[in-house]
Design goal:
With 124 residues, this protein is an alpha+beta fold. The protein has helices at residues 20-31, 47-73; strands spanning 77-86, 96-99, 104-107, 116-123. A hairpin with a 4-residue loop joins β2 (96-99) and β3 (104-107). The radius of gyration is 24 Å and the shape is elongated.
């Protein structure tokens, strides 16, 4: 006896997190027993804007810390000798999916975009 199996996959982006459970429920209802949901994965939709914001905060915090140390040492900050950004995407599964009696609830948790920098200032 021979058999064949075919599959097709789709990736769907849901823009409003509050609607995620209802969208998953509608897809499952439409697909019936022929459907398999492999994953529900949260992500930051506009990671560029989030990274810019995180970068601004990192520079502000680094400068405040450097000014504090300079004050403690009785010197002033000079020009920046170098700045290195250390960042990489981090995917942490902070979400959960729970099936209630009538609907699916998807808790996406909290997602953070972080930027870490190393800055060296000259001193005057």
């Amino acid at each position: 006896m021979s058999g064949y199996r075919a599959s097709q996959s789709y990736e769907i982006t849901i823009l409003k997190a509050d609607n995620a459970g209802a969208v998953v429920d509608a897809i499952v209802k439409a697909g019936g027993d022929s459907l398999q949901v492999n994953a529900v994965t949260p992500f930051v939709l506009d990671s560029a804007a989030a990274t810019i914001s995180a970068r601004q905060a990192a520079v502000k915090n680094a400068k405040a810390k450097a000014l504090s140390y300079a004050s403690l040492l009785g010197v002033k900050l000079g020009t920046v000798n170098y700045l290195v950004e250390n960042s990489a995407p981090t995917y942490t599964p902070l979400f959960g999916v729970a099936k209630a009696e009538d609907s699916t609830t998807i808790d996406l948790g909290q997602q953070d975009v972080t930027v870490s920098i190393t800055v060296q200032w000259g001193l005057k």
